[in-house]
Fold this sequence. Notes:
Elements (H helix, E strand, L loop, with lengths): L8 E5 L5 E3 L4 E3 L1 H9 L4 E5 L7 H13 L9 H9 L8 H27 L8 H21 L4 H6 L4 H14 L12 H7 L4 H22 L1
Helix pairs in contact: 1-2
Amino acid sequence: xxxxxxxxxxxxxxxxxxxxxxxxxxxxxxxxxxxxxxxxxxxxxxxxxxxxxxxxxxxxxxxxxxxxxxxxxxxxxxxxxxxxxxxxxxxxxxxxxxxxxxxxxxxxxxxxxxxxxxxxxxxxxxxxxxxxxxxxxxxxxxxxxxxxxxxxxxxxxxxxxxxxxxxxxxxxxxxxxxxxxxxxxxxxxxxxxxxxxxxxxxxxxxxxxxxxxxxxxxxxxxx
Length: 223
């Protein structure tokens, strides 16, 4: 079974710069043609008077329109300067083939790139909940560091029998929230990410406040 060949739509451009889609018998805009490209619909644009193929210039106009939109830039300034520099150069013949091959490679690999982020980062783009998870890991490391710098026997001397219960409850809460088996925390998976989301932002803020109180207490005892 062979796929039917795609039919190329003919677009005519008139002297008034209006574009006419002969397949739908309707006038279209550059934005409509841009959407057709994204949908994989092939078309050629011809000058209605001279029948000259002006597809290249129209596609270039679409790029100019897209580049003019805020946040839509794809072409870096340096790339544009280098591209202009190749016009008239003896290597100009190589540039179209090189760019075409590069874009084809990117198009083929884009699904693999998406799948990589989904499988490696638990189905999330690397700038979502993953940053929240990293923040929780950093807080756990900060807590462990503070314990290393705590004075020996400080809990028995300052907390001792008067504040011992409060200190014990705080330590139990810290151990319950953070129980790393090693200094290296593995990359979150869908299962671990779902479990980590149970720790709310309020709990994280509460732990930071507890650490601040612990620092103040240590400074008071040292004085």
